[in-house]
Amino acid sequence: MKRTSSGLYVAVIFALIVSLTGTAFAGKLQQQLSAESAIEQSLRRGVLKIGMSTFVPWAMKDKTGKLIGFEIDVATRLARDMGVRAEFIPTKWAGIIPALLTGKFDVIIGGMGIRPNRNLKVNFTIPYDYTGMSIVAHKQLAANFSTLEDFNRPDVTVAARLGSTAVTAAKQFMPKAKLRMFDDESQAYQELINGKAHAAVGSAPTPAFYAIKYPEQLFLPLKEIFTKEPIGFAVRKGDADTLNFFNNWIRVVEAEGWLKERKHYWFETKDWENMIK
């Protein structure tokens, strides 16, 4: 009986030691992960590095070369609320996720749609916006086109930005059309303006802006968006602290009505147009 009690006592002591050791290790690991998070690194350096790409009215340059737009407002306020400076790092869309993963910047704030294939590589915040695909067409080449099926033909050319959800939408809804992809969204629209494509697909309201700007050449065959997608910040996997902060920040500014106000200004008015002309 004494031998059994003695063995049980040793087992309990051993289990306690293992438990305490494991707890200490877990605590140390948690501290290390916290210290290595993008949010902590940004606070230490005093700068939040933001990956983005230019496309109207999300992010664009004004007449002086300064970046302006909905995403610029969002990222600038985010950094200010953190007590750091926003540093924007323009990056080609096709390579923006690899650049995030290699540590070129801390977060992608660039109108990125939350999609399962992207989510395999990065973590997304809760949505801070919703957008959808729209299409703008050439008046002569696409005369009388009024449905997506009208563009779903082998003799039709559709332009879109490489690596964007516009490409996914074009392949899904117009699989028979010839798809031409460009590194910069402006190149895709220029191809359309020059009469080398029947249509261009992009996130609303950009196609509508081009139709308004070039009324002699372009028109909107569809009056509404034909997809709807949530938009989120993208961060590296395994960074729970950064994801938690960004999610709660989005909830706060959304509850304030600030996101809605900024969205209205950039997407539903043209009050900013004189800054880029």
TrEMBL record:
Entry annotated with the keyword Heme: no
SMART domains: PBPb
Transmembrane residue ranges: none
Recorded superkingdom: Bacteria
Start and end residues of each Solute-binding protein family 3/N-terminal domain: 47-270
Keywords: Signal
Pfam families: SBP_bac_3
InterPro entries, A to Z: Solute-binding_3/MltF_N
Protein name: Amino acid ABC transporter, substrate-binding protein
